[in-house]
Amino acid sequence: MPEYKAPLRDIRFVMHEVLESEKLYQTLPGYEEATAELMDAIVDEGAKFCENVLAPLNQVGDEQGCKWSEEGVKTPDGFADAYKQYVENGWPALSAEPDDGGQGMPNLLGMVMSEMMGSSNWSWGMYPGLSHGAIKTIEAHGTPEQKEAYLTKLVAGEWTGTMCLTEAHCGTDLGLLRSKAEPQADGSYAITGTKIFISAGEHDMADNIVHIVLARLPDAPEGTKGISLFIVPKFLPTADGGVGERNGVTCGSIEKKMGIKASATCVMNFDNAKGFLIGPANKGLACMFTFMNTARLGTAVQGLAHAEQSYQGALAYARERLAMRSVSGPKNPDGPADPIIVHPDVRRMLLTQKAFAEGGRAFIYYLTQLGDVVQNGDEEAAKQADDLMALLTPIAKAFLTEVGYEAANHGVQVFGGHGYISEWGMEQIVRDCRISMLYEGTTGVQAIDLIGRKVLGSGGKLLMNFTAIVDEFCKANTDDAMKPFIDALAGYNKEWLELTMKIGEKAMQNPEEAAAASVDYLMYSGYVTLAYFWARMAVVAQAKVAAGEGDASFYEAKLMTARFYFDRLLPRAAMHKECLLSGADNLLDMPEALFAF
Predict the structure, then answer these.
(1) How far apart, in whole angstroms, are the C-alpha atoms of residue 360 and residue 531?
(2) Tell me: the pLDDT tens digits for 544-563?
């Protein structure tokens, strides 16, 4: 299994040099204590936990998986002990509100921790991962009584949370769900129904599990307008905050999966379970978006995490594995062959992994900073940040998981035949990563959200907000050293708007045109967005090199990786442009009957 080492130098580079986090947090009320020194100290301690506790359990968890019985679900050896350490060290409370027992640190620090946990052991990280969404949902929509009953326990990590949305017959189309909520005399609701694909729905790591559940009231309208949201705990809380009687919610089974085998993916049965309405009746889907947006960013991190994990494994192997000679002459003349890192194709794969991991890190950290502004900034700044997040979140979720999966596959390829063998751990990364393009909305679903609701639905306003930022950046960085990056970025940024207009015009005549273009449009958007972050990183690195400051090799590597991205990866956007402009006819003209085999 690849040995995970937290990329602390690059994490600090993005947090402090590119995004200037300390400067930002000094302007946001409540975050003034988040100095660079304190943030680094927290990240360093988190890295030790991930490297020394979680990483050694990654392959163990894959081999053992979870075990279901009528008494519950048993997680792999070491998982529960690791969670106990996680709670004792206060990690669940890192970015939560102080009024609820949290430490009040920026969400950015929680995201850094999520990245390191995901890179070291994604399956384990899924158990506390959804608790953050449950906390955000109850904070935003819960009553004072609900907050008092659940938030302190969730924030402390004593209880964990889940998101119970889909059912076997409906998948992403939640308007079809059938779970029922019958009003009771005491003001609660009896929840009946079955939910599937519930991550961490049952486990042996925490005292209680708080399910956030979508269900229908008896008089609810059909479709998504008739969905309400409920808190349904595994054990009902007692008046003193303890764990009371068992509720009518059980795990019927756990799925046998391609990957993330140490994460319990549960079928959850609700049998007249006592639930409590959260938010307004029949507005549950709107309330649930608080949870889903948190989860979408959490899934985007998976693309980054698996690109990083696979890159670390592939790089170490490429430096040691001897095979063939360099075409330009031996680079290891005293050995029987050269290390494979000298071969251009191996470098192509390694640099692709590196470019997606480091670019994805800047993208996700930026989005998380925007979330901190939404939460603690003034009204105008919060609105601007919220609009940017609305546009960029579906791009981050879909694009970063797609390229993260590509990066994971490159890791197997670098290892050659050994990459296909489980003992090396590279094939596990591919299996674990594959789910990221499916849950929290597939790539196609995110693409429709982007082009339909966010871009065309806003009349282009949300897109123009971001392209204006990119344009301003390009105009501010016109020196000769940056010209290759800035000229390319400015051109793609302008073309992005032009393509959007063309799709919009076509869609006015035929709405299928937007849907047919959607995935290529999203991927085009992703490559251009990542180019912006690579250009930002290149500007910082070039300034450091010119000034002779810091570790020159780090900044030179950053510039070289930026050049690789612009020369080798950004041109893929042109392919997506041609595909999306080809129209809907090549997809829809064929009658369904002709799909026969």
Answers:
(1) 10
(2) 999 999 999 999 999 999 99
